[in-house]
Amino acid sequence: MATYTITLNERSARGKALMEYLQALGILMHKVSPKAKSSYQRSQEDKQAGRVEKFSSSEEMFKSLGILNPTGF
């Protein structure tokens, strides 16, 4: 017995029809969904893509955000 993995769009009419057909034949064993990424994985992707900024102090961060007086005084 061979195992096949297919990817299809269940939102399309053809995708729905194929899923129903495979279920009717009893071929479809289980549905596998992609695993959600952990927050650590997302943070590493952000770092690699250059979407992370580093600041030496909170004052520097507030200045870059346009907040001149972070304490409110």
Q: How would you spell out the order of helices and strands?
A: HHH
Quickly count the helices. Answer: 3
Q: How confident overall, as mean pLDDT?
A: 84
Q: N-to-C terminal Cα separation, in Å?
A: 73 Å
**What percentage of residues falls in helices of 4 or more residues?**
40-55%
* Portion in strands: under 5%
The whole-angstrom Rg is 24 Å
Report on this model:
This protein has 73 residues and is an all-alpha fold. Helices cover 42% and strands 0% of the residues. The chain has helices spanning 13-25, 39-48, 58-65. It is elongated, with a radius of gyration of 24 Å. The termini are far apart.
List the helices and strands and how they pair.
Blueprint: H1 13-25, H2 39-48, H3 58-65
Tell me briefly what this model is.
This protein has helices at 13-25, 39-48, 58-65.
Can you tag this structure with a few keywords?
mainly alpha; 3 helices
